[in-house]
Amino acid sequence: MKRILILFAHPALQKSRVNTHLIDGVIDLNGVTVHDLYERYPAHDIDVRHEQALLLEHDIIVFHHPFFWYSTPPLLKEWQDLVLEHGWAYGSAGTALRGKLFMNAISTGGRQEAYSTEGYNRFTIRQLLAPLEQTARLCGMLYLPPFVVHGTHVVTPEAVLEHTRCYRTLLTALRDERIELQHMRMLDTLKSPDILHDLLHDDNEVRHA
Amino acid sequence: MHEGGFFFQALVYLAAMVVVVPIAKKLGLGSVLGYLLAGVIIGPFVLGFIGTEGQDVMHFAEFGVVMMLFLIGLELQPAKIWKLRAPIMGMGGMQVAGTAALVLLLGVFTGLPWQSALAIGFTLALSSTAIVLQTLNEKGLLPTDGGQRAFSVLLFQDIAVIPILAVFPLLALPGLAPASAQSEAGHGGNILADLPVWGQTLVVLGVIAAIILAGRYAINPAFRLLARTRLREVFTAATLLLVIAIAVLMSAVGLSPALGTFLAGVVLAQSEYRHELETDIEPFKGLLLGLFFLSVGASIDFRLIQHSPGLITGLVFGLIVVKLLVLWITGAVFRLSTDNNLLFTFSLAQGGEFAFVLFSYATQNGVLGTDTASPLVAAVAVSMALTPLLMMLNERLLLPRFGTKQAGEREADVIEEQNPVIIAGFGRVGSIIGRFLQAHGVQATYLDIDPDNVDLLRKLGLRVYYGDASRHDLLHAAGAASARLIVIAVDDPDKGYEIAETVRRHYPQLRIIARTRGWRDSYDMLDLGVEDVYRETLDASLRMGADVLAALGHRRFALYRATHTFRKHDERYVRELAVMRKDSKSLLHGARQRIADLEILMSEEMDQLGRDKDSGWDASSLIEEYGTSRTP
C-alpha cells in the first residue's frame, strides 16, 4: 500500500463548493493524509522540518489547489520555495524525494475548451502546468497527469458529486497500486470519469469503491 | 466612671477607632499612632471611658499579633526564610545580646543588683512586633532591605523569649520572695513543667514537627472538604480554629503562639487556599491589632508619669538611645546602606509588648521589685507610643539630609552604555520586548523603578538600571540624546504619561513606542503627539477571539486576516475618537464618553467586517460578467 500526501492549499475554502466536496470525499481514506496548508499556517510561518518529514513519510505527493492565475495560491508557492531546499530536494546531494510520484489536483473556473490554443486561455493545462512538472522532475519525482475539475463556476451539484467520487476512486487506486502507471502517464489530463475507468486493472472494484 | 456593659465598651472602642484613626491618617501620622492616641483619649487619664480593664483587653487583643504573624508567614515562602537565616541569627543575636549587655552595665552602674539588671536588659532588648510590622507594612517599607532586616530581628526576638522565660527563675534575688509559688511560664500554664529538660525539648520539637506535617498533608484536604460545603462562615470558622488551635498548642508547651502561627503560615504559603485564609483572617487581625494598640495607649500610666516625670522621661530617653545605638552598630556591622540602616534602627528602637509579660513574670519570680518594674512598664509603653513619631522623624528629617534623595529609596544607577533603544520598565511587557530585541542582537538600555526587580535581573546577568525614567537627568544618562527609540513599557499609565511628557519636551527627535492600558490613557498619549500607541490587551484578546472562532470551525486563515483587519480598524478609531474627544471635551464625560465610543466602534465594526474584502477569491462577479460561456 502506498501512502499519499495531499498538500491542500485554498485561501478561502469557505467560498469553494467543489474543493470542499473533493476534500471531504478523501479525508477519511486510510493511507491518505490531507494536509490543509492554509489552516495549518495562517500566518505563512511554514515549519520546514515538519514538512520535509511529512514528505519522507509518503510515496505519492499531490498538490491540490485552485488554479489561480495559472499557478498555485501564494502559500503553496512559498511552501515550494522553503521546503524544497537545495541539497535536500534537488542538487547533487538532494535525493530525498527521488522516485516518489507527483500529481496536481486542480480546479479551474473556466471550462475545458478555454484551455486550448484556440481557447480563451491560449494554452493547454499541461502547458500551463509546465513549471510544476519541471519542479517535480528536478526533484527526481515521476510526474503524473493532473486531475482537473473544469468549470467550477457553473458545475451542477450532481457533477460535483461525480467529481468527488472520481477523485476518491483515483486516490484509492493509486494507493492500492491498481493503476497501470505507464498507461496513465501517456494521458494528457485526468478529466472525466471515463478516462479513469480504462486505467484500472479491475473495473469491478471501481464501481464498488 | 465607666459603664461596665459589653456593648458600651464595644461602642467606646469602635467609636474611638472610627473617629480618631482616619483623622490621624489624614494628618499623615499613620494608623498606629492614631490607635495609640485614641487609646490615650478614652483611657482612664483623659476621658476615663475605660479603666484598668484595659490590661485585660490588651491580653485579649494580643491575639491580633498572633494573627498578623500568621498572615506574614503566609506571604513568605520557606526558601525566603532560609535566605534570611543570617540576618535572623546574626543580627537578631547581636541586637539582643548587645542591648542586654549595655543595659546590664548601666543598671549595675546605677546600683541595681546584676540579676535585676540582666533581666531588665533582656526584656528591654525586645521590640514591638505589632507596632513595627504594622507601621512598615502601612508605609510599604516591609519589602525593603531595612524592612526585611527589621523583620528578621523581630523573628529572632520572638524565639529568644523562650530561653529568657526559662532563665528568669534562676535570677531570683534572695531578698525578694517569689510573689506567687506556682511557676507560671508565659501566657498559659506550661503542662510540661514536670518533665525533665530533654523530655520538654522532645515534646516541643514534636509539636513543631506536627504543625509542619499537618500544614503539609492534613490541612489542604480538610479545607477542600470544607470548601465543598460552600458555607462561607464554616470556612472562616475553620481558619480561626486553625490559628487558635496552634496558639493554644504552642502556649501549652511554653512556646510563643505568634511563633507557632508564623510557622504554620509559612507551611501554608504554598497552599491553594492561601488567599482564602488571608481574606478570612485579615479583618480579624486588623480589628484585634487596632484594639491592641488602643489598649496600649489606654494603659499608659499617666499618674506615674505625673508623679515622677523626670524618672520616666529619663528612662524612655535612655531606652531609646541605647536601642538606637546597638541597632545602628548592628546594621553597620551587617553592611546595611545608610538609608536602610536608618530605617532599621529607627523602626526597632522601642520596648515591646513582651516587656509587659516579662516584667510581671520577673516580679512574680522575685527578680525585680514592683517599684522597679512599674516605671519601666510605663517607659516601655511610652516608647511604643513614640515609635511612629520616631519613624516620622527619620523620614522627614534624617533621611532627606543623610540618606539619598528619595526617602528610603536608593539612588538611580550610573548608566555605562549608550544604545539605540531605551526600554523604560522591564516587567511583563518590557521583558518580552527586550528578549525579542536580544534575539535579534539588538542591545537596549533598560530602566526600571522597582529595586528588587532590578537586583533580580542583574543577578540573571541582564544590564538593567535602577531609576525613574520620567526624570530628565536619568534619561540623559541613558543616552536619550543619541538613542533612536524609547519604549515606554511601564505598568502604571500615569508614570508612562510622565515619561512621554519628559521625552516630548526634552528629546523631540526620539520616537516613542508606548504601551497603554486602555482607551483613556491611549487618548492622552495620542494628544501628547505620540503616534505609536499599543493597548496592552488588544493583541492577546484578538488572538483569543480568533481561537474561539477556530474552535467553532472557522477557517484559520480567514480569522488571521480578520484579526488584522479588526486591529487596523480599532487602532484607527482610537485615533479618530481621540480627536473627537478633544473637540467635544465639554459635551461628554467619563463613563458616558466611553459608552458613546463603544457604540460608534461596534456599529462600524459590523459594517466593516461584514463587508467582503476577499473579493479576489470570489467568482460571483466573474460569473455575472462572462456568464457560463467563457470564464477564465
Question: Globular, elongated, flat, extended or rod-shaped: what is the shape of chain A?
Answer: globular
* Cross-sheet strand order for the largest sheet of chain B: 3-2-1-4-5-6
CATH class of the largest domain in chain B: Mainly Alpha
The level of helicity of chain A is: 25-40%
Quaternary organization: heterodimer
Please tell me what the overall shape of chain B is.
elongated
Number of helices of chain B: 27
Helix proportion of chain B: 55-70%
Might you state the CATH topology name of the largest domain in chain B?
Na+/H+ antiporter like fold
* Rg of chain B (C-alpha, Å): 32 Å
Please state the average pLDDT score of chain B: 81
Given helix and strand content, the structural type of chain B is mainly alpha
* CATH homologous superfamily annotation of chain A: Flavodoxin domain
Beta-strand content estimate of chain A: 5-15%
Structure characteristics:
heterodimer, A: 209 residues, alpha/beta, Rossmann fold, 6-stranded parallel sheet, 10 helices, 40% helix, disordered C terminus, B: 632 residues, mainly alpha, Na+/H+ antiporter like fold, 4 domains, 27 helices, 6 strands
Provide structural commentary:
- The complex is a heterodimer of chains A (209) and B (632).
- Chain A is α/β, with parallel strands linked by helices and 209 residues long.
- Chain A has a single domain, classed as Rossmann fold, CATH 3.40.50.360.
- Helix content of chain A is 40%, strand content 14%.
- Chain A contains ten helices and six strands, in the order E-H-E-H-H-E-H-E-H-H-E-E-H-H-H-H.
- In chain A, strands 1, 2, 3, 4, 5 and 6 form a six-stranded parallel beta sheet that branches.
- In chain A, strand 3, helix 4 and strand 4 form a beta-alpha-beta unit.
- In chain A, helix 1 packs parallel to helix 7.
- With 632 residues, chain B is mostly helical.
- Chain B folds into four domains: 51 residues, no CATH class; 349 residues, Na+/H+ antiporter like fold (Up-down Bundle), CATH 1.20.1530.20; 125 residues, Rossmann fold, CATH 3.40.50; 89 residues, no CATH class.
- Helix content of chain B is 68%, strand content 4%.
- Chain B is built from 27 helices and six strands.
- In chain B, strands 3-2-1-4-5-6 form a six-stranded parallel beta sheet, sandwiched between helices.
- In chain B, helix 6 runs antiparallel to helix 15, helix 15 runs antiparallel to helix 16 and helix 25 runs antiparallel to helix 26.
- The longest helix of chain B is centred in the middle third of the chain and has 33 residues.
- About 2% of the residues of chain B have low confidence.
- At the A-B interface, helix 2 of A face helix 25 of B.
